[in-house]
Design a protein that fits this description.
alpha+beta; 2 domains; 10 helices
């Protein structure tokens, strides 16, 4: 009678509902935790449920969760072994982003005739990163374009510019920085292949800034790093003591010590 009552309650649970002993005892005030545990053991021996342990990765945190598989129709050990193996096969073949992590000790109903299909969530569209604006100078500091022009004379004395020259050419140099050019690249282009004598550094720099302006390259969005795939392989565990193990180590959902308790105290 107790097993029938608990089985009817479990049958009405929604997929993903908590099905551990404490939760069931709290929802069924007629029975305590020991009574619920004994009933689940009897239902496991009868072939109605099996339990498995798997790793869930959620928000970068790894934790072990227990999944309880329930079937209204009783099945033998061979059927359950095949079912759990099929669950592992589906976990390795399906999209890792489609599988949502199950709550701890979640119930998973199993149809009597066939294995349920995995629910596939709609893939999220990645947000394309936007180009970051160039930082504006603060506290009266010179802009990167002005600073690069001012350093030309120290790199090559033939291109020594005055402060007024740098201010007049600052707009042209800023166009280079707007196209992704840094100060080192700008300096190499302006100082490459200079003649032995430069009569007008201002005119030569202005000419090169206009003639050698690099093309504008479209911003290529960087694809987001693939999220860490949650591991959904199910490791069977004993219904009585919860110890995990290989499928062949369990009979009727119980490990050997729980099936054959030691007669000696």
């Amino acid at each position: 009678m107790r097993e029938r009552h608990i089985a009817g309650y479990v049958e009405a649970l929604a997929e993903g509902a908590a099905m551990d002993i404490k939760s069931l005892a709290k929802s069924l005030p007629l029975y305590g935790q020991m009574a619920v545990g004994s009933a689940l053991r009897a239902l496991s021996v009868a072939g109605h449920l099996r339990r498995g342990r798997c790793v869930s990765i959620e928000n970068g945190q790894i934790r072990w969760v227990t999944r309880t598989f329930w079937s209204r129709v009783a099945h033998d050990n061979e059927w359950w072994t095949t079912f759990l193996a099929d669950q592992n096969h589906r976990a390795t073949q399906s999209d890792p982003q489609a599988a949502a992590p199950a709550p701890a000790s979640a119930s998973v109903p199993v149809p009597a005739a066939q294995v349920p299909q995995q629910r596939v969530a709609e893939p999220e569209v990645p947000v394309q990163p936007q180009p970051q604006p160039q930082p504006q100078p603060q506290n009266g500091a010179p802009s990167p374009a002005f600073a690069a022009l001012a350093r030309l004379g120290r790199t090559d004395s033939r291109l020594a510019l005055s402060a007024a020259d740098c201010a007049a050419l600052e707009g042209l140099a800023a166009g280079w920085f707007a196209r992704g050019v840094d100060a080192d690249y700008l300096t190499r282009v302006l100082t490459a292949g200079l003649p032995d004598a430069v009569g007008s550094p201002f005119g030569l720099v202005r000419r090169r800034l206009r003639d050698k302006l690099p093309p504008h390259l479209p911003v290529t969005p960087v694809p987001p790093a693939p999220a860490e795939a949650p591991v959904r392989r199910v490791m069977p565990e004993c219904t009585e003591c919860g110890v995990p193990g290989r499928p062949e180590a369990f009979r009727d959902g119980l490990c050997r010590p729980c099936r054959e308790p030691d007669p000696t105290p």
